[in-house]
Specification:
Layout: E1 10-16, E2 20-28, E3 34-42, H1 51-82
Antiparallel strand pairs: 1-2, 2-3
């Protein structure tokens, strides 16, 4: 049986104007470190103004970048602990 050892909370914050949405993502890890990332979305001038869609796209891009940052961080920690260069971690 698996039990929860730790939980992470990811924060997303958005800034928008009529054509652009910017997302900032942040996760605070149990070791006290923070990983941050950003994502953007732009509305084509012929598209209707749908702020939620811009948030979803910019948020997804920020979370994707956050995932890559976490994979890089884990890869570096594996190398430091093992004293060797390991194969990169891919999604």
């Amino acid at each position: 049986m698996m039990k929860t050892a730790v939980g992470w909370h990811v924060e997303l914050e958005f800034q928008e104007d009529d054509e652009h949405t910017r997302a900032a993502a942040l996760v605070r890890l149990p070791d006290g470190s923070e990983v941050r990332s950003h994502g953007r979305a732009s509305r084509h001038r012929t598209d209707s103004n749908q702020p939620r869609v811009g948030e979803e796209i910019a948020g997804a891009r920020a979370l994707n970048e956050l995932a890559m940052e976490l994979l890089s961080k884990a890869h570096e920690e594996i190398d430091q602990a093992s004293g060797r260069t390991s194969q990169p971690i891919h999604i």
